[in-house]
Amino acid sequence: MKQHCKFYPFLKAVHGNWHNAIFVSCTHSICPYGHPHPCEGYLLAADANGVPILMQAEYIRNLTGESVSREDCQGVIGIQAFEAAYSLYIEWHTASSRDCPLRQLCQPADMVPDDSTTDKDMIPP
Question: Is the pLDDT of residue 4 over 70?
C-alpha cells in the first residue's frame, strides 16, 4: 500500500487526528468486486477545495497501530451514500466501473491506469 503521498494531505484535512474523519462503511460480507477479503472501511476527509481524500482503515491501523473503529470517527456513512454524493467525482476520477471506486480513489495517481486502458464505457457482460 503506497499511500504515503496522500497521508499528509489527509492528516492536514483532519487536523492531525484521524478521529475527525468520516467513516465510510462497506457492509458487504463478500466483496462485490471480487476482492478476497472484505474491506475494513475507509476514512473520508475533504481538502480545502472539497475534494475527497480517502484512506483505508486498514492502512491507518497498520501505520499507527491503533484500532480504527467507526464509533471513534465524527460520523458514519455507507458506501452507497458516498457513491451517491460523489457520483460525478467517481465517474471522472476512477478508471474502471468493474473495481471498487473507493479502492481506486485510495490508489496513488501513478497506480491508476491511463485513459487508454479504461473500461468505463464498456458494457458489462
Answer: no
The model's pTM:
0.79
Tell me the three state secondary structure of residue 43: strand
- Count Cα atoms within 13 angstroms, Cβ side, for 4: 2
Distance CA 82, CA 93 (A): 14
CA dihedral 93, 99, 100, 105 (to 10 degrees): -30
Q: How far is CA 19 from CA 34, 59, 65, 71, 112, in A?
A: 29, 14, 14, 9, 28
Element holding 98 (H helix, E strand): none
Q: How far is the C-alpha of 34 from the C-alpha of 70, rounded, in Å?
A: 24
Residue 77, beta-bridge partner list: 24
